[in-house]
C-alpha cells in the first residue's frame, strides 16, 4: 500500500513524539511492505514564528492532498498573549474546519498496569472502555455572530447546527457502536437548549435504522457525574462540540493514562487527522522525556481508520501493551517500580517488538 | 428576628425533605427566639397538575414578598414527555429569572465519614473544600434567538451576557474568596468564545480591587480534568451558567456525599432561594427513606446568607456532623456499619442535637 502522510509536529513535545511515530510507521512499512511517504509542515506556534500565521496555506494544501495527517500538539507560553488570530490553537481549529473533520473519536480504555495511577478507586474504574464521538466542526465553536455589541456592553456567541451536521455525526456514532458493544449514549441539554432538542429528535429518528444499537439520552450535567461514578456504564458517547470538549477531557483523566490516549478526527472522505489527547507540555519539551505512546497509538488509529490496515494497527497496540507489561514507562506515568525510560528508548522498545 | 419563608417543596422527595427542613427551622426559632412564618406554594410538576403551569403567578408573587425561599426539587417521569413550556424545570428556570437569582453558590466539602463512598481515592479527595460560584440567570440558558430556522434545517441558541451581568457575578466570587482561603479560579473558554474573552478581561480588571485574592484562569476542559485529579487545588471557582451547570454537577460526586450538598441562589437584594443539589428522586419518593440533610443544610445556608444568623447556621451544620459521627446515615450514603435510618429519624436526631 502506498500512502502520503503529512506530519504536523507543531510545538513543544509535539516535535519529539512525532519523530517516534515516524520511526514506528517506518518499521511497519518495512515489515508489511508498504510505502509511506512523509512530508512535514508547520502549524501553531512554530508556524506563527516562521510564517506569521498559525495555519499557512501551504500546510492546508499539503493536508488536502494527503491520505492522512498526523498532528503533534500546538501551543506554549511564548504565544499566550498573542491576539486571537495569532494564537496557536487557531491553527488547530482552522485545519479541522478546512478539512471538514467533523467526527472526533476518542477511545478511552484503562491499561491494567496504569490503573494504580488513576484518581479513581480501582473498583470504580476497572473495566471501563469507552469511545467519545465529539462533533468537531460546528456548534458554538464556529457559529456567528460571535462579537461584542453596544460599545462592549454586550457580548454574544452563537451555537448553531444544521440538521445535516447533526445527522452525520449521529450516524457515525451509531456505526461506531455497531462495531463495539452496541450501546450509544447521546448527551445533550434538551431541557434547556433548542439545539439539544433537535439533536435528541434526530437520534430518535435515526435509531430505527440501527436496531442493533441500544440508545439512551443523558443530560450533560448528569453525564459529567456518571463518567466519574460509573465510567464502565458507557460504550459510545456522542455529543456536540463544546460538551464533547469538556466531557472528553474529563474522561481522559479517569484511567490514569492521559499520556497514552490517541484521537482521530475524520471527514466524510475518510481523510483523517490523528493526534494525541495531551498538549504540547512546554515544561518538559526538549528534555527527551515525553511519553510518545499517545502519538504512536494515534498513528495506529490512522492505519486502522484511514488505511484499513487492521493488522498493522493491532501490532502497534500490542507492542505498546507488551512494553508496558514488561515494566517500561515514561516519567509521566506514575507507576511504582519497573523501569523509567525516555522518549527514544520507549520508541525503540516499541519498534523492536514490531 | 421575624422572617417570612416561602416553601416550594416541588416534586418527588422534595415534599419529604421540605418537612424535615421546616422541623429543623422550627426548632431553631424556639431555641433562639426567632419568629419564622412558613407559606407553602407549588412549583414544577405539582404546579402543572394543579394549575396547568410549572410556575403559577401566585408562587412568583409569594416568593417576591418573602425574606427567603426554600425549594425541594422538581421533575419526574410523569411530566417527561410534556412540551417544553409544560416541563417542571421551566418552573425552576422561571423562578431564578423572576427573582434575578444571578449567583448560585455551591459549597462542596468532604465529610470525613463519607469519603469511603467517594469514587475517588481517599488521598486524592481528602482535604477538598471548594465553593462553586455559578452565574445563573444569563448565558445560553436565556439568550435569544433560540430557535429553528429554514424549515427546521438549522437550529440556533445564543450565549449572551451584558458586561454588568459578568461584573456582578465576578464581584460576588471575589468577595466569597475573601471570606475563605483567598484563592479564585475563573473558568472560561477564552481560546474559543468571545464571551469568555470578555469574562477573562473583566476578571483581570477587577482583581486590583481585591488585592488579597490570588486569581488564576483555567479553561473549562482543563478544569473538568483538574477537579478530578486534584480537587483540593481549588478554593472558589467562578464560571458562567452552562459551564457552571456541568462543573458543579461533576464536583458534586467527588466527595461521595451528593445527598448532603446544599446550594444557595442569591439576587442583589440578598433574597435567596435555597435548594439541595440532588434531584426529586422519583424512584424513592414517598418511601420515607430520602436523605433530608442536603435540604436541612440548605436551610442553614439561608440562615447564614439571607438572615445573617451565623450561630444558628453553624449549629445546624454541627448537628449534621455529630449525627453522622455517631454513625447514623440514610440509605443513599453507602457506608458500611453504623445505623441506617429513615428521613423522619434522621431529622429527629438533628433536631434533638439543636
Ligand atoms: C485548543 C482547543 C481550541 C481545543 C478545543 O477546544 O477543541 C482542544 O481543547 C481540544 O479539545 O482539541
Ligand atoms: C433542571 C435544569 C434546568 C437545571 C440547570 O441546568 O440549571 C439543573 O440542572 C440545575 O443545575 O439546577
Explain what you see.
2 copies of one chain form a homodimer. By secondary structure, the first copy, chain A, is of the alpha/beta class. Chain A has 2 domains: 1-102 and 258-354, Isopropylmalate Dehydrogenase (3-Layer(aba) Sandwich); 119-254, 3-Layer(aba) Sandwich (Isopropylmalate Dehydrogenase). Chain A is 40% helix and 22% strand. The first copy, chain A, has 12 helices and 14 strands. The first copy, chain A, has a 10-stranded mixed β-sheet, sandwiched between helices. Chain A is globular. The model of chain A has no long low-confidence stretch (mean pLDDT 96). Bound molecules: 3-isopropylmalic acid (2 copies). One 3-isopropylmalic acid sits between chains A (89, 92-93, 245) and B (191-192, 221).
Structural features:
homodimer, 354 residues, alpha/beta, Isopropylmalate Dehydrogenase, ten-stranded mixed β-sheet, two-stranded antiparallel ribbon, 14 strands, 40% helix, globular, binds 3-isopropylmalic acid
Please provide a brief summary of the model.
The first copy, chain A, is an alpha/beta fold and 354 residues long.
Query: Biggest sheet of chain A: strands, sense, closure?
Result: 10 strands, mixed
CATH topology of the largest domain in chain A: Isopropylmalate Dehydrogenase
- What is the CATH class designation of the largest domain in chain A? Alpha Beta
Under CATH, the homologous superfamily of the largest domain in chain A reads Isopropylmalate Dehydrogenase
Number of domains of chain A: 2
Can you list the ligands bound to this structure? 3-isopropylmalic acid
Radius of gyration of chain A: 20 Å
What is the overall pLDDT average of chain A? 96
Amino acid at each position: 500500500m502506498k500512502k502520503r502522510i503529512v506530519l504536523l509536529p507543531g510545538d513543544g513535545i509535539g516535535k519529539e513524539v512525532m519523530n517516534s511515530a515516524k520511526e514506528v510507521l517506518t518499521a511497519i512499512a518495512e515489515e508489511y511492505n508498504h510505502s509511506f511517504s512523509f512530508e512535514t509542515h508547520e502549524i501553531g506556534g512554530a508556524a506563527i514564528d516562521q510564517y506569521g500565521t498559525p495555519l499557512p496555506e501551504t500546510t492546508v494544501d499539503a493536508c488536502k492532498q494527503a491520505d492522512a495527517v498526523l498532528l503533534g500538539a500546538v501551543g506554549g507560553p511564548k504565544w499566550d498573549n498573542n491576539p486571537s488570530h495569532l494564537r496557536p490553537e487557531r491553527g488547530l481549529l482552522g485545519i479541522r474546519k478546512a478539512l471538514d473533520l467533523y467526527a472526533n473519536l476518542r477511545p478511552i480504555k484503562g491499561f491494567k498496569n496504569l490503573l494504580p495511577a488513576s484518581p479513581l478507586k480501582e473498583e470504580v474504574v476497572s473495566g471501563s472502555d469507552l469511545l467519545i464521538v465529539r462533533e468537531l466542526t460546528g456548534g458554538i465553536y464556529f457559529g456567528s455572530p460571535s462579537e461584542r455589541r453596544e460599545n462592549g456592553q454586550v457580548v454574544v456567541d452563537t451555537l448553531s447546527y444544521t440538521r445535516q451536521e447533526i445527522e452525520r455525526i449521529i450516524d457515525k456514532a451509531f456505526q461506531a457502536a455497531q462495531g463495539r458493544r452496541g450501546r450509544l449514549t447521546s448527551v445533550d441539554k434538551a431541557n434547556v437548549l433548542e439545539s439539544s432538542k433537535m439533536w435528541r429528535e434526530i437520534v430518535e429518528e435515526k435509531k430505527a435504522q440501527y436496531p442493533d444499537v441500544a440508545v439512551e439520552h443523558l443530560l450533560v450535567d448528569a453525564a459529567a457525574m456518571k463518567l466519574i461514578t460509573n465510567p464502565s456504564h458507557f460504550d459510545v458517547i456522542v455529543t456536540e462540540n463544546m460538551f464533547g470538549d469538556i466531557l472528553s477531557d474529563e474522561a481522559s483523566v479517569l484511567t490514569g493514562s492521559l499520556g497514552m490516549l490517541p484521537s482521530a478526527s475524520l471527514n466524510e472522505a475518510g481523510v483523517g487527522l490523528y493526534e494525541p489527547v495531551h498538549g504540547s507540555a512546554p515544561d518538559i519539551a526538549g528534555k527527551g522525556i515525553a511519553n510518545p505512546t499517545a502519538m504512536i497509538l494515534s498513528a495506529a488509529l490512522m492505519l486502522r481508520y484511514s488505511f484499513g490496515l487492521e493488522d498493522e494497527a493491532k501490532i502497534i497496540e500490542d507492542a505498546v501493551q507488551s512494553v508496558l507489561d514488561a515494566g517500561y514507562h515514561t516519567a509521566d506515568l506514575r507507576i511504582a517500580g519497573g523501569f523509567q525510560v525516555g522518549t527514544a528508548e520507549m520508541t525503540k522498545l516499541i519498534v523492536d517488538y514490531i
